[in-house]
């Protein structure tokens, strides 16, 4: 299972035995379960939902959380798992993130003990699938424009509104919906999908993240009991804390996509011949490979640094923005350069590179665009908000 990339920069030199074991198990899962079906799933615009219970059995959903049958692994271990899943496909890593970091994370961070006991064990096992309903059609990067409303009616809450680009909602049993109460305060609600008035529709016309599942949600007089509210969540800071968990996983995950592209380019440079010699014997190709590897290694070291800060309880949202901005941006550059090394064949499904290129454009957009993260970092540097 050792790759050429591992030989030059082996992350095993910097992680614990337990973290490395999580990585190798995730790599085996990705290579034996995801890779054999992912190209067909991408072509068919289908998330391989049949693998989700196996991810639960593997223990990756909410794996860095304590209690409720969850594994209590380190944040670095989770990052390594995210990286190996995304080396197979960004869409499948996204499912891991939506379930574990967003849906489970919201209940874990802000839910009542009853809500945690009811949902987290089943979600951790992959027996219940969850979603995280924040983004709205008109909102995009500005969730403060939220139109979804929650009003009290006796001993019930009544929700109305729309959400868009919500992962997993058409197959989920439960989700966390964010809505503004009658005082204009953003609150979170645990919403079973069987509730009357809830409707989720898959977004079908994607040219990226095709082996993933994003949806639109319509809420029409959805009635919930008073205890459906997340008691610990009040204001936009609550969903943002969940998004930071997902952004952290992205910083690791995209390095998996970059590694997959690099491995394909290195192998092709050794076997494809032009002008009587392998293209890897040409100085310009070696320089390109070297430059890409340097950016990959820097991205890995950044992700590892963020993971250690997170496990120490010292990671800030500004630092997370550095990781998300840099690593996604560099992964996209690496994928594009690898595609060019593969020549015309690089646009075919004989190699994973074009699929990674398409997926990474979505990863660049969700959980904060480049521009949003630039402004977060700029605010940290200057003390002035330029949003």
TrEMBL record:
Residue stretches making up the Acyl-CoA oxidase/dehydrogenase middle domain: 132-222
Listed InterPro entries: Acyl-CoA_Oxase/DH_mid-dom, Acyl-CoA_Oxase/DH_mid-dom_sf, AcylCo_DH-like_C, AcylCo_DH/oxidase_C, AcylCoA_DH/ox_N, AcylCoA_DH/ox_N_sf, AcylCoA_DH/oxidase_NM_dom_sf, Glutaryl-CoA_DH_mitochondrial
Cofactor entry: FAD
Pfam families listed in its UniProt record: Acyl-CoA_dh_1 (PF00441), Acyl-CoA_dh_M (PF02770), Acyl-CoA_dh_N (PF02771)
Alphabetized UniProt keyword annotations: FAD, Flavoprotein, Oxidoreductase, Transit peptide
Start and end residues of each Acyl-CoA dehydrogenase/oxidase N-terminal domain: 16-127
Source domain of life: Bacteria
Protein family: Belongs to the acyl-CoA dehydrogenase family.
Protein name: Acyl-CoA dehydrogenase
Organism: Leucobacter komagatae
């Amino acid at each position: 299972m050792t790759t050429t990339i591992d030989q030059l920069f082996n992350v095993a030199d910097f992680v614990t035995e337990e973290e490395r074991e999580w990585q190798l198990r995730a790599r085996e899962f990705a290579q034996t379960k995801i890779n054999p079906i992912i190209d067909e799933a991408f072509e068919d615009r289908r998330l391989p939902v049949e693998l989700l219970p196996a991810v639960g059995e593997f223990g990756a959903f909410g794996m860095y959380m304590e209690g409720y049958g969850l594994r209590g692994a380190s944040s670095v271990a989770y990052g390594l798992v995210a990286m190996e899943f995304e080396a197979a496909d960004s869409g499948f890593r996204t499912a891991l993130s939506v379930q574990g970091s967003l849906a489970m994370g919201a209940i874990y961070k802000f839910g009542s003990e009853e809500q945690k006991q009811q949902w987290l064990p089943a979600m951790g096992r992959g027996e219940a699938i969850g979603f995280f309903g924040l983004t709205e059609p008109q909102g995009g990067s500005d969730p403060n424009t939220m139109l979804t409303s929650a009003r009290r009616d006796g001993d019930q809450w009544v929700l109305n509104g729309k959400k868009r680009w919500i992962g997993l909602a058409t197959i989920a049993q439960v989700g966390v919906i964010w809505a503004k109460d009658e005082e204009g305060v953003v609150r979170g609600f645990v919403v079973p999908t069987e509730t009357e008035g809830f409707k989720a529709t898959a977004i079908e016309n994607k040219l990226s993240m095709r082996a993933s599942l994003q949806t639109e949600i319509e809420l029409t007089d959805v009635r919930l009991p008073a205890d459906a509210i997340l008691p610990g969540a009040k204001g936009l800071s609550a969903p943002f804390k969940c998004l930071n968990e997902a952004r952290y996983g992205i910083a690791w995950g995209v390095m998996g996509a970059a590694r997959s592209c690099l491995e394909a380019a290195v192998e092709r440079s050794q076997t494809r011949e032009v002008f009587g010699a392998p293209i890897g014997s040409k100085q310009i190709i070696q320089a390109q490979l070297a430059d890409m590897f340097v950016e990959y290694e820097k991205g890995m070291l950044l992700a590892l640094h963020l993971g250690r800060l997170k496990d120490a309880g010292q990671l800030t949202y500004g630092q997370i923005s550095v990781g998300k901005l840099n690593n996604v941006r560099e992964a996209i550059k690496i994928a594009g350069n690898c595609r060019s090394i593969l020549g015309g064949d690089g646009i075919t499904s004989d190699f994973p590179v074009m699929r990674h290129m398409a997926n990474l454009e979505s990863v660049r957009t969700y959980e904060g665009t480049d521009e949003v993260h630039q402004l977060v970092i700029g605010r940290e540097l200057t003390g002035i908000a330029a949003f």
